[in-house]
């Protein structure tokens, strides 16, 4: 599944499968401007840290196209557009990485024309797009080796093809195990309030013929107690220098339960999701989203009018609960401060 993020040369636009309407409708959202890109990121037309990074890379190119038609200094205008993309969502480090990467390329290009810069940027966005799929396949290879034949793997949120350019991180591990000839199945936690597990993980696994059952988030402890879960594999929006993993809200609770029932808990993410500049998970800004995601299911309101809600989108899972961090360069093990440091010494480019 790679068709959900497409660059259209004919339209000079980024075409995104609108994940807000899955699995019931497959609508497409067209991005031609910076506002389009930021809207798609904020309302979760596209979501998942690697997919956000790919989208942001194309967004920088589209921002440059937009600047071509503006009055004033194009460099000043472009910087403002890049800031807008950079700040669209606070938690996923891949977004910041993509904008920083495009700025690095701009700086290295020197006194280049806008037309030449856009040519370079589009090529780089396409490289990031293709490279993300390759990274996920490697994550699947390394992670698949950790899975055993017959395993039932629990996951939380959607860290599959839809959250990346294709193949997936956590679900890449599932696909990797299957590619290695192992018979595995998945329990997809529904992942309230946005239901990424029930809507998206179940959608793409069912579409690919991979056995999947959806469980309400509250069933996690009982399923583990009954021996129905062999491994837990999740993705991450950011991994800090000490190995804390920030993922969709509820992941921390799943990790605590996995520890209680002696179930290995793995995090799967590309190297560029690791933020070595942030020391620990508690230092990561946690997005507080629209209360309507909690108060409503579709157009139907659940709690009474006037009742306030929490809608924190992510939580940090402490590194001591993580059995391994699966990257495209291999599996990192505790102590994570040391293994992460060595990873970046061996692969400084990320």
How would you portray this structure in words?
The chain has helices spanning 34-42, 49-67, 74-86, 93-109, 114-144, 170-179, 196-207, 220-225, 251-260, 292-295, 336-346; strands spanning 5-8, 13-17, 28-31, 152-156, 185-189, 212-215, 231-234, 238-240, 245-248, 265-268, 274-275, 296-297, 300-301, 314-317, 324-327, 330-332. It is of the alpha/beta class. It has a 7-stranded mixed sheet, sandwiched between helices. It has a 4-stranded mixed sheet with strand order 11-8-9-14, covered by helices on one side. Strand 5 (185-189), helix 7 (196-207) and strand 6 form a beta-alpha-beta unit. Helix 2 (49-67) runs antiparallel to helix 5 and helix 3 packs antiparallel against helix 4 (93-109). The longest helix has 31 residues, at 114-144. It starts with a strand and ends with a helix.
